[in-house]
Amino acid sequence: MPEQPVPKYCFYEEISITEDMTKMLTAAETPIFAAKTIRDYAIFTDKRILIVDKQGIIGKKMEYFTIPYKSIVAYAIETAGTFDLDSEIKLHLSGGLNIELEFLKKKGNESLLFKAYETISKFIL
After folding, report:
1. Burial of 113 (0-12, 13-18, 19+ CB in 10 A)
2. What is the CATH number of domain 8-124?
3. Which residues neighbour 82 within 8 Å (Cβ) at sequence distance 6 or greater?
4. Would you state the pLDDT for residue 89?
5. Per-residue confidence (pLDDT) for residue 110, from 0 to 100
6. pTM of the model
7. Cα 72 from chain centre
8. What is the C-alpha separation between 33 and 84, in angstroms, rounded?
9. What is the residue extent of each domain of the chain?
10. N-to-C CA span, the chain
11. C-beta neighbour count of 73 within 10 angstroms
């Protein structure tokens, strides 16, 4: 059976969480922080990572992808080297799915990488 491509999300900055962004959160979870890709964003809560993927030319169509912390069976962090463009967190989920959260190398982005890593560690350990 051919190997499935690994979904990748490439974040470049932390953003404020707006009221509109929280419409897909439940009353039982608390948002911690959000990170942005070019068009998409992710909200890290105390229960899961919610990735909002805007689709189509104008981005009206949205896909909401949830990664519950309880489904993460292993994870790794890879920091950017001198010539790397990004650092990443590799998530291995139950059921054999793998996902990569990439963080573009720019001033201050290493703190975003470690904030995501610490949040994941806090809720799965």
Report:
1. buried
2. 2.30.29.50
3. none
4. 95
5. 77
6. 0.89
7. 13
8. 25
9. 8-124
10. 33
11. 12
Count Cβ neighbours within 10 Å for each residue of 42-51 and write b for 16 or more, e otherwise.
bbbbebbbbb
Residue in the block written with tokens 């990443």: 88
> In which residue are the tokens 């975003």 written?
112
| pLDDT per residue as tens, the chain (125 positions) | 556 677 888 898 999 999 989 999 999 999 999 999 888 999 999 999 999 988 877 778 888 999 999 999 999 999 877 667 788 999 999 999 999 999 887 755 678 999 999 999 999 98
Overall size of the chain counted in residues: 125
- Phi, psi (degrees; rounded to nearest 5) at 12: -130, -10
Say which amino acid occupies 78: E
Residue 106: strand, helix, or coil: coil
∠ Cα 18 24 27 (to 5°): 90
